[in-house]
Design brief:
Helices cover about 25% and strands about 35% of the residues. The protein is of the alpha+beta class. It folds into two domains: about 240 residues, P-loop containing nucleotide triphosphate hydrolases (Rossmann fold, 3-Layer(aba) Sandwich); about 110 residues, no CATH class. The strands form six sheets. Strands 6-7-8-3-9-10 form a six-stranded mixed sheet, with helices on both faces. It has a four-stranded antiparallel sheet with strand order 2-1-4-5, covered by helices on one side. A hairpin with a 2-residue loop joins strand 21 and strand 22. Helix 2 packs across helix 3 and helix 2 packs parallel to helix 4.
């Protein structure tokens, strides 16, 4: 196991990059703690796989260093980094049995036969394939082959880190939930450093202790699921995390009040001057329909999703989403929306602005 340090790291696929726009990964400095479970989350093309390949040694960064513990591994090949990697599409030896596929990494390292047998059977149970361990991999379904690939990545107990690159793409939804649960159990038992790449927020939030959100080649926030939900550091995090995502409205900030289309919205904290493009962000969970206070809105539709209702409303051409409890009444006179002041975030040019002080506190 290892602490992973990314120091002044950046990468461009061009031989002579001229500016930030030429970099697939913008400059970053991060420390990922030994034994942590991390998820790299972002939309396609944001740099997740590039970063994972740099950590694994499949790609050398254009600048900066990668350290495992105190060892600089920037120029070390993958084989010397002592990692396991599971790819998006299964890599399986069709002519081997499931058992032999799982045992392959251990036999390569000349482990004891009894240990190999016990370890393979344990992993076989974990991935739900104990009944077919002696069957050839040829002819198995794509999701079965991916389970073999996952199992082979997890069979070693002595690795510095296990890297997963969108490993559940071909797995059916029920098995995805089961395997994520099993991965969490394995992490608690063995405390491997695990890095899990995905574009699926549910996978990221249920797997990871900390989620690393990437946007346009940058890490825009690293935090716990609660931190990403309550205090998104960037508007992309607010939009990408949550269903529906955060409501964002252009505003002018004056102290503890945001002015939005001529309406005053009280904030739960005071702010100094906010330059650039100022916006307020509020989660639909912290917005409520009213008949007497708040911003005037036009209701467009109500979606009943079982546990709650999603109210789609419009404010000066901008969509506002409100989450209402399942039993909440929505009357024709409820044409305003109010926000919980203490749950409003303020942004300048997409980055969160720290408040000068909570109301009632010294700034």
């Amino acid at each position: 196991m290892a602490r992973i340090t990314l120091s002044n790291l950046a990468h461009s696929y061009l031989p002579h990059p001229k500016g930030p726009e030429d970099f697939a990964l913008k400059q970053m400095d991060h420390v990922w703690e030994d034994g942590g479970a991390y998820a790299l989350l972002g939309s396609s093309g944001c740099g997740k796989t590039t970063l994972l390949n740099i950590i694994s040694g499949l790609l050398r960064p254009s600048q900066g260093r990668v350290l495992f513990g105190d060892r600089d591994v920037t120029d070390a090949p993958t084989a010397e980094r002592n990692i396991a990697q599971v790819f998006q599409f299964p890599v399986v030896y069709d002519t081997m049995s499931v058992r032999d596929n799982l045992a392959f990494p251990l036999r390569n390292r000349r482990m004891d036969a009894a240990y190999i047998r016990a370890r393979v059977e344990a992993i076989g149970r974990m991935i739900g394939m104990e009944a077919v361990l002696d069957r050839k991999a040829r002819g198995l379904t794509a999701d079965a082959k991916q389970k073999i690939s996952l199992g082979r990545g997890m069979v070693r107990e002595d690795v510095n880190a296990i890297l997963f690159d969108e490993p559940l793409t071909v797995i059916d939804p029920h098995m995805k939930w089961e395997l994520r649960t099993q991965l969490k159990t394995l992490h608690r038992e063995l405390s491997h450093t695990m890095i899990y790449v995905t574009h699926d927020q549910t996978e990221a939030l249920t797997f990871a202790d900390k989620v690393v959100v990437m946007y346009d080649g940058r890490v825009v926030q690293m935090g716990t699921p609660q931190e990403l939900f309550e205090t998104p550091a960037h508007t992309f995090v607010g939009y990408f995390i949550g269903s529906p995502g955060m409501n964002l409205l252009d505003a002018r900030i004056e102290g503890n009040v945001a002015h939005v289309e001529g309406c005053a919205v009280p904030l739960g904290a005071g702010y100094g001057p906010v330059g650039g493009r100022a916006q307020i962000g509020i989660r639909p969970e912290f917005a409520r329909l009213t008949s007497a206070e708040g911003l005037p809105v036009r209701l467009r539709r109500v979606e009943d999703v079982g546990r709650h209702k999603i109210v789609r409303a419009e404010f000066f051409g901008r969509e506002i989403n409100i989450i209402a409890e399942e039993g909440a009444g929505i009357g024709p006179d409820m044409t305003r929306v109010a926000f919980r002041p203490d749950k409003i975030n303020v942004y300048s040019d997409d980055w969160r602005v720290a408040p000068a002080g909570r109301l009632g506190e010294a700034a």
